[in-house]
């Protein structure tokens, strides 16, 4: 994470958890993760008919260098996704 900005590369990590396993189970990386990653947690709602998770349009954002506790994260509004897949081939 510290060297990627020097190469003008912006890595994107997508994970179901914020444990260090996503970083290759690197020991001692927690401080680096908390100080340098911009994290977005998507919050789903449950469809009353299908009982499956759907987009709620809500999320929580952790800015680099701010507290890792979820209470410290910023509430954000996101676009609600109404379909599972989008076809970008005709754009």
Q: Please bin the fraction of helical residues.
A: under 10%
Beta-strand content bin: 15-25%
Content-based structural category: mainly beta
N-to-C series of helices and strands: HEEE
Number of helices: 1
Q: How many β-strand runs?
A: 3
Mean pLDDT: 78
Rg result: 16 Å
Which regions have little confidence, pLDDT < 50, spanning 5+ residues?
none
Please provide a written account of the structure:
By secondary structure, the protein is mainly beta. Helices cover 8% and strands 24% of the residues. It has a three-stranded antiparallel beta sheet with strand order 1-2-3, with no helix packed on it. Strand 1 (39-46) and strand 2 form a beta hairpin. The termini are far apart.
Compile the SSE list and pairings:
Elements: H1 30-36, E1 39-46, E2 53-62, E3 74-77
Compact summary:
By secondary structure, the chain is mainly beta. The chain has one helix at residues 30-36, and strands at 39-46, 53-62, 74-77.
Q: What are its keywords?
A:
91 residues; mainly beta; 3 strands; 8% helix; globular
